[in-house]
Design a protein that fits this description.
heterodimer; A: 358 residues; Rossmann fold; Cytochrome-c3 Hydrogenase, Chain A, domain 2; 3 domains; two-stranded antiparallel sheet; 41% helix; B: 219 residues; mainly alpha; Fumarate Reductase Cytochrome B subunit
Amino acid sequence: MSDDRTLGEVMTSRGVSRRAFLKYASYLATAMALPASATSVIAQSLATARRQSVIWLSFQECTGCTESITRSYSPTLEDLIFDFISLDYHHTLMSVSGAAAEHAREQAMKDNKGKYIVIVDGSVPIKDGGIYSTIAGVTNEQMLKDTVKDAFAVVSVGTCAAFGGIPHANPNPTGAVAVSDIIKDKPIINIPGCPPIPEAMTGTIAYLLSFGKLPELDKLNRPLAFFGESIHDRCYRRPFYERGMFADSFDDEGARKGWCLYKVGCKGPIAYNACATLKWNGGISFPIQSGHGCLGCSEPNFWDKGSFYKPLAAATAGINAEVGAAAVVGAAIGATAAQIIKKRRQDVADRAIKKVEG
Amino acid sequence: MDLLDFARGPALQVGLIVFAFGVAWRLAALLLLPRMQDRSKAREGAPTAAIASGREVLRRMWPQGAFAEATRFSVINGYIFHLGLAIIVFGGTPHILFLRDLFGISWPGLPTNIINGVSVITFASLLLALARRINDPVLRLISTANDYISWAMTFLPVATGLLAISHLGARYETLLAIHLLSVAAFLVWFPFGKLMHAFLVFVSRGTTGVHLAHRGAQL
């Protein structure tokens, strides 16, 4: 997969005009909330850059993240992002398999030592020596450590790689952990989501190529450009929330009129992602626009936060047997105390009567 | 488990358990106490116990006679923050959802902006109540830790709720978690402090009315 041409030369050979290239750079700068001056920097950097070697490791995952990135806006320049990078190893997308595939990974690591980027989707099982997921007889944990050793940076795409995701959910039978739980000595960018927004993935990779450094990240190592604001803050249904107009079910008048989905469990207020702005499928829609509340899939442990359909304001346990038992015990203790006092008073009265009679 | 998970889960669960235990305990212990028999004969024309208690409850809802001037501020201010709290708790949609989840019943909520306005008024009213307690020499003298803790347990959910809906000071999930933790603390303190007056105020006023009427007081 080696190609010594610059990206600009590759694009030109594919018939991409300079104008289209600048439009893409402008779009990328806008998406990542960069100043207008960044457009020319991105365009120039990308045009003169060599293809970046990328090794994509898929561990405990469902391939949804790969499905997502292959559905980046099409047919536009985003599709060509794959030409910006040299995807040297990817189970699903590469044509070779078996020993040849593993050789490609090792060769890429050797040829691009200290420069390649490792993208990981899927969590890493570590219980029982990590035997629950292996590739070519090597555990995911070992392959991750070996591959990342000489990498420039690691990009964890999807909530599984970023935070453990669904494999990490209770009872977590495989001991699934996030990449950041294992790798401590390399810069890590998390692009969570189940799956992540394709433009968040391609945009972050393009940023790395353009600037050679990590974008600004939040406390969970997510690019602020895509994860800086909550879904709720950017939701087009927000005015209905402010006016107290809610859907009470998925089939009532409020739902049909597109009112706020807070009552039916929308987690938009605590979910940080760009779904409400970038949207999906070429900017057509996103889950809330389709009538379903946000699941908060870009947040850690989203699967273990109680029912998806329980409002954020409700206690996750509620009134249960323990609360009922506490009331019964309290009432019993109170009644017993009242009876003791009653008996004491009766004893005092009895003694007084005896004293008078005696 | 993050802070919000802890607040929505174990913290509120403990709060509800302690609240249920404490309220049941105190109500049973008080209401099942044997009543002291008033051996004296009731004054002629004394109303029945039901009427006397009802009249006393109503009479004490507004400043009366010689105490009117001295109690006017606390009564009016008390109305403001009590009504404010009621509107916030029973009119705010997130609170209705919280109650619906507990009791299975719900009703339409008020617009967020109205709740915001009422919250600000309630917030200011509670601060005024504290300022008066601190500045009035008599009130200060008779105030105990119970009064200040009960005030704080009421004030904190209002203050943190305002911060949460205004997104001030931290991210929303952190503010919501702090708000829910303050509610959990409120529930834990409720049965054991003066907040229990929410259940006992009309019982005690009614009982006082019965005693007063028995002795010939005009209610």
